[in-house]
Specification:
The protein is of the alpha+beta class and about 160 residues long. The chain is built from 1 helix and 11 strands, in the order ββαβββββββββ. About 20% of the residues lie in helices and about 30% in strands.
Length: about 160
């Protein structure tokens, strides 16, 4: 028997004998197969445009870890200046014109991983509990956006002092 799928114009040899159309189980199988084909066609059609979209928009910029020979991906630092708001504001991109989403206090340990010389900001990784391993204290093989267990963002570079690295 040959089955021809009209949407794909594909012929497939099917050595199985198909039951009569009056069999209720046969109809359930056909309905299930149609649903599966519909789902597969929709996911393959819609996945491409979604993947092509930029990951960050509206000024947001990820903190990038940089591969530098045998050096750690980030340098250990500490917040030194709380600024006029009483805290150092953390932004989602390398611009203080974006809305701040977090704040840090003087003395808080952070990891300095990225920089933006044009806006005088640094990309940081941090944990408010101080105990979480942010997984940035070892060398990496290639540049990559930070996606680890800690928070990340951008602060003004004059608010941080590099301690090691």
């Amino acid at each position: 028997m040959v089955i021809i799928l009209p949407s794909k114009k594909l012929a497939v040899d099917c050595p199985l004998k198909l039951p009569q159309l009056s069999n209720p189980n046969y109809l359930k199988v056909i309905i299930m197969l149609k649903k599966m084909l519909l789902i597969l066609s929709l996911t393959s059609f819609s996945a491409s445009p979604i993947l092509a979209q930029p990951m960050y928009t509206n000024g947001n910029r990820p903190v990038t870890l940089h591969a530098m020979d045998d050096m750690d991906a980030c340098s250990l630092g500490a917040i030194t200046d709380q600024g006029p708001e009483g805290a150092v504001l953390v932004f989602s991109g390398d611009s203080n014109e974006l809305e701040a989403f977090d704040n840090l206090t003087s003395g808080q340990a952070i990891w300095v991983c990225d920089n933006s010389e044009e806006n005088d900001m640094v990309g940081i990784v941090y944990s408010h509990d101080g105990e979480t391993d942010c997984e940035v204290s070892s060398p990496i093989l290639e540049d990559m956006d930070y996606t680890g267990p800690c928070s990340s963002g951008w602060i003004m570079s004059d608010a941080v002092e590099v301690i090691a690295g």
